[in-house]
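Researcher: For the record, we're logging two predictions in this thread. I'll number them. Prediction 1 follows.
Model: Prediction 1, sequence and structure:
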Amino acid sequence: MTPLVTLLSLLVLGAQAQHGAEWTYSEGALDEEHWPLEYPDCGGTRQSPIDLQIKKVRYNPSLRALNLTGYRFQRGEFPMTNNGHTVQISLPSTMHMTTSDGTQYLARQMHFHWGGASSEISGSEHTVDGMRYVIEIHVVHYNSKYNSYEEAQKEPDGLAVLAALVEVKDYAENTYYSNFISHLEDIRYAGQSTVLRGLDIQDMLPGDLRYYYSYLGSLTTPPCTENVHWFVVADTVKLSKTQIEKLENSLLNHQNKTIQNDYRRTQPLNHRVVEANFVSYPHQAKGYLHMRNQGSRVEPSLTCHPLDSGSLQA
């Protein structure tokens, strides 16, 4: 390659990065390692996801259960889109979450992160003591004191994400996911959308939503703004291996490659404090991950300190 051709190639790559090249997790000029070139916040000190290290989690008895309204079955149409990075379900603002300090967050959308690139790779973003779950669910909200998500996403207290981790349960189909999974074939290609008619988000989340980890972080995808209050539920969702494999292999990205391993690597904690509204004993808190390797499975055990249960409203 001549020096001139080399120079032109570098200029083209630079121009792509400068003018919004499609970000990716592992390929191209704007892979995860290079996100900060286009999105400076991605190189910040309060990034997500993180590794939840049980021994370092601080128990906070003042954290009550989240008050969830509108999470139960709602009639209507809910757009579901393959955005080239994940599957995303648009949610109505009638769904909202109120935290212990009285802050109300309105729901915006729900999406998923998964693995699948090999039989042993799981795809949650947050890990627990270094162990990764197979899938992670994010329900994204914005602070109700702002007029819109677009306004809130620019504010330091603008966003909140309710996150749930998924593990494998042998041979048991989770019927609450049947409708969602059956529509994946309708959005195989990036940019395609379909509609879910009627939706019960609470049934798609863990059975026990009272106990959670809480910390301040960022969006896990560009622009990685550091204005997200995270609530990671301690309980897990159970899906069958067949259901998980369907999610891992149904959608294509903008390059018509199967969307797999759409998760960001864990980020440094940088002196932040992770709190929880339950007491977890370290010797019982190991083994949260149900790995695909059957021999590696350890049933999780968690001791929760009873607290004010708050309320879960339809």
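Researcher: Logged. Prediction 2.
Model: Prediction 2, sequence and structure:
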Amino acid sequence: MSEPSEPSTDSADVPAEAWSGVHRGPLREGEWVRLVDQKGRKHNFELVAGKRFFSNKGHLDHDDMIGRDEGFTLVSSAGGQYLVFRPLLNEFVVSMPRGAAVVYPKDAAQIVALADIYPGARVVEAGAGSGALTCSLLRAVGPWGSVTSYELREEFADVARRNVNQFFSAPEGQTHPAWDLRLGDLKEGLASHGAHQVDRIILDMLDPWNCVDAVAEALVPGGIVCAYVATTTQLSRVVETLRVHGGFTEPQPWESLVRDWHVEGLAVRPGHKMIGHTAFLVTARRMAPGERPPRKTRRPAPGAYGPDYTGPRPSDVPPHDASIAGVDLGEPGDA
């Protein structure tokens, strides 16, 4: 077993009132740790005095971790080596208990950055799922902002509550002061926030297009809506609905793909693992009441809104794509 290093004395813990979910200094009983073995297998568990962690490489005593600074290697009773750290947020969410599927870190990071979630923001989320995105939103808004999460299923809400409270080390009977978890439908709940009183709305649901009118009413001018959808049909429907509404800027759809790389000397190549498609993201900004964005001058691709298209149709697009019938739509920019 490796010799314990002396705990650091020059780094005070992160203030509890920051509600960061992060601790500095020696590991404490009740904290969660993340062990990684020599094959990259990961294990997360809570430190409990007197308890043991068992694996196919023998056991480790929790007492040998409590009181030490994170970032050390322990050798188990059967000779297995384990790296010991506190789990990062992106590590916590992919291994936490799940009710609904989680929003992966690559998408949560995109939402926080491109939906511009900032300290003090008033954010509404639908639905809460397993609490993965909620943790990122709460950390971004801080204790002085607000995150209101709507979840239709009570069992999912219970899982989300446990996961969020675990990550932020919430005292018994308490939760993050910026979080309001509500059972119910977003469309009905948004009315309780008042007109133009919400800065950001995140829609992680099957039919976000059905909420566009309620979202438009609740968002402040300049506010952002961000939809998280899994399929191309959902993507098309939410983009076209936002476009047809007229009270939002042109919707911006995208997805992100993450690929790791293998780097050993001259052996530099793409890794065998890749986090490919998880979801599409769509953002749009709320116009001021009564204002509409400038009309697009670039005409749609031929057949884009042809007879086979049955979704929402922009008001300046003919009932059937005129270009298919041989009608000249004019040059871009022609009035």
